[in-house]
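Deliverable D2.4 — example input (structure tokens):
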């Protein structure tokens, strides 16, 4: 697998472990580890993705919209469906960035 695929797999795996384990200390450690994986992924994106393209700006705006929706959904679970739609759109925009770089 590629580094990107391994990062995605590790993120999913750590998240799944967080959901499965009952031990609070293990959850804390796993949360820190997931944060570390995500921070390094973000750093790799910033180094490798040209930020002056329309696709990059659209993807960034889409993620900002999705993040606002996620925050609202965390406060009121009635907003989860809206957040899911915005996250899906952001993922589509990210895919366009990736396709443009391939």
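Example output (designed residues):
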């Amino acid at each position: 697998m590629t580094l990107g695929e391994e990062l995605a797999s590790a993120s999913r795996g750590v998240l799944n472990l967080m959901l499965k384990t009952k031990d609070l200390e293990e959850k804390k450690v796993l949360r820190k580890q997931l944060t570390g994986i995500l921070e390094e992924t973000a750093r790799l994106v910033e180094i490798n993705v040209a930020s002056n393209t329309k696709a990059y700006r659209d993807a960034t705006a889409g993620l900002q919209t999705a993040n606002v929706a996620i925050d609202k959904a965390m406060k009121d679970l009635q907003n989860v469906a809206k957040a899911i739609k915005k996250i899906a759109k952001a993922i589509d925009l990210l895919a366009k960035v990736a396709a443009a770089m391939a």
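The chain has a mean pLDDT of 89.
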